[in-house]
Amino acid sequence: MLNIVLFGAPGAGKGTQADKLVEKYDLVHLSTGDMLRSEVARQSARSAAIKQLIDKGQLVPDSMVAEMVAEKIGEHRHSNGIIFDGFPRTIPQAEMLDAMLAEQGLHVCGMVALNAPEDELVRRLLERGKYSGRDDDRDDDVVRRRIAVYHEKTAPLMDYYKAQAKYLPVVGVGGIDEIFANLCAAIKHCKP
Ligand code: ADP
What we know:
Blueprint: E1 4-7, H1 14-25, E2 28-31, H2 32-41, H3 47-56, H4 62-75, E3 82-85, H5 91-103, E4 110-115, H6 118-129, H7 140-154, H8 157-162, E5 167-171, H9 176-187
Parallel strand pairs: 1-3, 1-4, 2-3, 4-5
Helix pairs in contact: 1-9, 2-3, 4-5, 6-7
Adenosine-5'-diphosphate (ADP) binds at residues 10, 14, 32-33, 36, 53-54, 57-60, 65, 86-87, 89, 93, 136, 146.
């Protein structure tokens, strides 16, 4: 299975590129952001708590996200592979992912990291906020908070995957197809 962690700050273009990767490599797209937003829409018992955290630009607890991910991995363990988009976002989440995959005899094949400068990230998120319908994309303070949370909690994952020789940096600036080509070149170095 080709299991890829698609990494990057909010606004780095993970969702757009994930759609293209899914099509090219016939993979399953696992986006914890999408899963959380659909849980909010379903109005479950914990919807209000999840929405409050998302709208403040904070992370949802690791255990809650891990549970959703474990279920989805189980459902798709016989697929060609999974693209993890927006997960893992903390070191404990990365450790849980390794454990969950190992349980099924699987592993992360590589972390492809989309890099883009911060002013570009903020610009893209606020632009997206005009039509995405996402409250967390509309407010400048929330957008900056999400990027700060990324630096504090998520960026350390680069070292986590570097230590496993799975970190594959990709230039995330340019046209969508150009960035996609950069990603595909990096994926050649993934270890299925
Ligand atoms: P973006 O990459 O643009 O921030 P996402 O859709 O990945 O968008 O995430 C939106 C929000 O959902 C995050 O700010 C966070 O509140 C929550 N979220 C998504 N994935 C996770 C995760 N793996 N762990 C904790 N919270 C998450």
